[in-house]
Amino acid sequence: MSLALDLSFSHHQGRWRLPGSWAGRDFPDLRMYRELLLAAERGCLDMVFFGDGTGIPSTYGASIDPAVEWGIGFPRQDMSPFIAALAQETQHIGFGLTYSSTFMHPFYVSRLLNSLDIVTAGRMAFNVVTSSRGADAANYGFEELMDHDARYRRMEEFVEVCQELWRSVDRDAFVWDRETGMVAEPGSIRAIDHKGEFFTVAGPLNSVPSPQQAPVLIQAGGSPRGIRASAGFADVVFGGAFAEADRVRHRTLLDEELLAAGRDPARVGILWDLHLIVGDTPGDARRRKEQLADLLPPEASAAQFAHNTGYDFAQLPARFTLAELQAEVIAKQASPMGFRDLVNEHGADTELSREEFFDSLWKVATGYEHTVAGSAAEVADYLEESYESTGSRGGFMIAHPQVTPRDLIDVVGLLVPELQRRGRFRTRYDGTTLRDTLGVPAFA
């Protein structure tokens, strides 16, 4: 199985102050990331992954103050310069970088990723996302969110343009002939002349092809429309489901869409979102899980949930049903995914008070309900069962360790050796690129 490490929120939602976190170093100290990358590479992990957002959460109470005070989705950096530096400290581990197809331009992003793939010697992945958060949209001149289906059409065209640009320069285009002075064969570099619904791009890319020619493409759509989009181009899918039945359903729908797109389902794995705490003993792991209960005040949890769903929970009525609330979230073109856990816990038609609703949010904000806590053997049992039930393709994305660096050190020191003992995880890297590590076909 594959194992990736999601560092998108390693310092958010109060994690930075739990026992086992760094003392004397604060985000975004490059030395922190260097220690994490070297530890992850010692454990032979496939890659580290950086999600992103460009707006400070401001939906709750129409203010950024709660997010700023409690560190909810804030602060964040563009991680591309960090990756360029960290690539010089490592040799094998890959890097996943996120940019929004809703706001960015494909020529800029394709050229940047081409350069990063060169700097990392072929270890880049591009996490292609659509954006459903109002604070991000406002920074790019949007007064409201783009329609859900339009976001996915734009993403599909965005990826199409990027792929056309990466193909616009042949792998062997550059000859650098010192005798004749020829730099590149003119016929090996071609314009793309793309004219679509959202983009007009002449091309070609004015760059040297990178080791992979194109980065590994990752996409995380969980709706039927998102799954269809990921089946069209993703090399690896990031799966957000936690319940086993939901994972099996996602895998089944993805396989159907892959076949419809003329692609081999056996070649496209899913990395399942995974919150975990590995302890020396089961009791130690579960004790540390309970620390999450006191991590955030209700206002901070509400600010995070409001940012993700686009609904201002400061305006909640005294009593309501989750079904009513979810309908309003969907109408705002935001993401209703976070409601699934609350609906499963309470029932869509159960009437809740404002106070009862807020008491539930800390579990969503901290990932408490989905955190797998146990000994290395117990966690390995869970991973094996889930891996097999979803087709034994892909693996897991260890989501922003609850405590950094403690939880990563325990993964590398306790869980990885257990998986290796069972023959479930590599003991060394084979190949030189991230495509080699993930078993992803070459870009064609």
UniProtKB/TrEMBL annotation:
SUPFAM superfamilies attached to this UniProt entry: Bacterial luciferase-like (SSF51679)
Which GO MF terms are attached to this record? Answer: monooxygenase activity; oxidoreductase activity, acting on paired donors, with incorporation or reduction of molecular oxygen
Pfam families, per the entry: Bac_luciferase (PF00296)
In terms of superkingdom, the source organism counts as: Bacteria
List the transmembrane segments. Answer: none
Q: Where does FMN bind?
A: 52, 98, 148, 152, 223
Could you tell me the keywords of this UniProt record?
Answer: Flavoprotein, FMN, Monooxygenase, Oxidoreductase
| The Luciferase-like domain, residue ranges | 13-392
The UniProt entry's sequence similarity note says:
Belongs to the NtaA/SnaA/DszA monooxygenase family.
- For this entry, the protein name equals Methylene-tetrahydromethanopterin reductase
Organism in which the protein naturally occurs: Subtercola boreus
- Tell me the lineage of the source organism: Bacteria, Bacillati, Actinomycetota, Actinomycetes, Micrococcales
